[in-house]
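#onboarding

Welcome to the new folks! Below is a worked example of what a typical request in this channel looks like: someone posts a single protein sequence, and someone else replies with the predicted structure as tokens. Don't worry about understanding the tokens yet, we'll cover that in week two.

Example request:
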Amino acid sequence: SLFSSLDAQGPPLGSCRPHNHVMFLKTHKTASSTVLNMLYRFGEERDLHFALPLGYQLGYPLPFNAHRVKGYRGPRAMEFHIMGNHMRFNKPEVEKVMPADTFYFSIIRDPVALAESSFAYYKEVAPAFRKAKGLGDFADDPKKYYDPRLRNNHYARNLLWFDFGLDHNANFSLALARRGEAMIRRAFKLILVSEYFDQSMVLLRHALCWPLDAVVSFSLNARGRSQAKAPPNLSLTEEQREKLREWNALDWHLYKAFNRTFWEEVDRFGRAQMEQEVALLRTRREVLARVCLRDGGKPVEAYRIRDKAIRPFQSGLVKILGYELQPGLDNATRQACLRMIRPEIQYKDLLDAKQSHPSLPMVPFAF
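Example response:
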């Protein structure tokens, strides 16, 4: 079958053993839903145990607490393999849930692009964004709109810093920024960069010793095409972009520091080798898109997806797109394709049902 062919394995990885204990800090608006889908697929195919939230997030935006994990009964009462739902990172509590040999990784994004995405997605949720006409107005004078005491305003300032468990309202100083950076370096083995997603997947595959298909994905939780070019209330001047970097100075420091590290990793890996493997990854994605997806694999608006069980959840000003499966697939191929396009919320419900009642046949949950 297509999914058990040699192509599915990808270039050889030497004699490493696949990591089964993985913790992914799912940061906001960084392509992290696509990464979580890969973790869900890998674990589901191998019957691994997920540290799932009681709801859909692990207590976010409060700092993570081990008791937020469904079925957690104290350290080591049960082996959890994979953790990756939204949380505000809190390492001592994560260590109560995850085994000592867990591989920790996360993903970051340029703070200006992140602010654009956050503004579009959380406009109605974050008071600071709700008050501003457009992102440009907010960028011109963030302090006019921003009150640190109001709930959900963390989406409007140093969101990465916040997700990593640090104080996002602290005044910027280089010493503070370096301390936060050092804390993240100690806790995480690998920090991916959303702007270099495919290169990130190659590094991740080698770090985890996973087959190629485990890191091939279709972009999930993406915004509508007409909106991918910034709508008028999102367009920014260069001066406003600079102001957003200042406003998110702690995130900007992290982005520059981990971007440098990322390219050092790529150099160690070998640039020529990286180009080859990225090309393979992209070719494989195209092959799977042709097999799995209707309409040549273009994402479509949710209301046009006939199967309600795979319609993505909608939030904010932008339409979140999803996919339609190619009709007439054989059962095994259909199941493998379905895993690649199943939206995060439905996938979590499915895994939850599987873990709560391992003996029950799986019936997909329909919204």
